[in-house]
Amino acid sequence: MSKTTAGPAPGEALTQRQTITVMVGLMLGMFLSSLDQTIVSTSIYTIANDLDGLSLQAWATTAYLITSTVTTPLYGKLSDIFGRRPLYLAAIIIFLAGSLYAGSVHSMTELAIARGIQGMGAGGLLALALTIIGDIVPLKDRAKFQGYFMSVFGISSVLGPVVGGAFAGSESILGFDGWRWVFFINLPIGLAALAVVFLYLHLPAKHVKQRIDYWGAAAITLAIVPLLLVAEQGRSWGWTSANSFICYGLGILGIIAFLLAERRAGDYALIPLRLFRNVTFGLSSLLNFIIGIGMFGAIAMLPMYLQLVKGLTPTEAGLMMITFTIGILTGSITAGRTISSSGTFRIFPILGTAILTTAAIVMGLSLGADTDLWVPGLIAVFFGLGLGFCMQPLTLAMQVSVPSKDMGVGTSTAAFFRSMGGAVGTAVFISMLFSLAADKIANGMKDAMQSPDYVKVLQDPAVAADPANAKLYDFFKNGASNDSLNDTSWLHSANPVLTRPITEGFAHSIDTVMLTAAVLTGIAFLISFALPKKKLTDPKAAMKEPAAAH
Description:
- The protein has helices at 2-6, 16-38, 44-50, 57-82, 84-102, 108-136, 139-168, 181-184, 186-200, 214-237, 242-265, 279-309, 314-320, 322-342, 347-366, 374-400, 407-448, 452-458, 461-465, 470-478, 496-528, 540-549; strands at 172-173, 176-177.
- The protein is globular and about 80 Å long.
- It is 76% helix and 1% strand.
């Protein structure tokens, strides 16, 4: 039979070679989901111009973020009921359908819908990959494998802007607009992942008789969608606008409804509240959320600094962030191998949050308009190292702190809290950056006007007549504000003397944001000491108990 030649029959253990083959398929799936979180960031301006929908460009990002976050806990719970394999295959197929549609769209509204479909698939790719490792790999090897997976997550997140910028910069590839390959590139990779998982992953058939928590699913959707919506759109709406307050109200209502629904559902709940009684699970969830805020805030700020202050293109900024991947590779693999050999995990979140806090403080105190590029490059290494020390051990801790029947819920909850933290961190920090920058740039220009040399350049007819300075003079007329800072494409082609107050204003604002991130990661550092000192033990022993009962 072809099935037995491709992989073991359901219920049989995978050989080492088959395990590695499945890992490659799972890594390809994770690569796609994390790549697509960031690949659109550098290409969206080109896409929006081509589709005549610049005002709708934010929705392409928001739709993906909302659907991927909302579906993450759903995949976790459904995989505990129906099995991992069918859910993972469904996630890849949904993601591929969304990618094909996204590459074929003719309007920004269509693109937002397509990105939403992509997100529905992506929600399962990350969480279920880590859950499947928990099913097929013993704890002594799992930490090592998950370290590689976290490295793939970090690398693809950073590669996204580089790849997106490269495709968007190409006029045409194989007869299609260059930017369409931002989405088409997913098809061969996704099909390879689909083939490998279909042929080689044969877990025991599973269909646990259990009610599905529809009320919990509806409530968590009501809670998350408005809160992510205001996080993404709040800066353009205004944080105190009617739209924002409607979202706050609906989000709070959704959270209350979700807690009531989960309490009523008990063991059938989407995220059973009893799991939070376990100290390791509860603290790891909180740490994932806080670290998500600080981490994604930092990942957003470093490229902002490189582009706005140092004048790098999005692609160059993405390439500079490769130093971040060196850090995350080192951190994830070191933590994985140590946990595999000793079972000790608590030291890594403590070390990781300490490194993240120190890196954020150094960044907040050292980055200015004249700082050499090697400084942010080195800081990125330590951000990655701290992240590698945190993400992988906390996911493992959440996996082994829940009963084996809740493995999917435990793993997806870790991904869910990290995604929520990332969404909040990115939105709040970018909003904070531009709000601070408007004030600092306005004050910087007032001070500059006191300098005779600056005024002399400003009033020079040759400088004023230079087309490269046209938008800069418009900026001077309109004044520094959130709206006038929306387009800074002219910043590094205009006169460097006149733009100096603007680049310095951005640099000082980024410093303030990073010191704020340091406070958050510092809180996470203190919380990490409350994690239990016990070693992680293999839950396979616990799995034998229900088997014996049957």
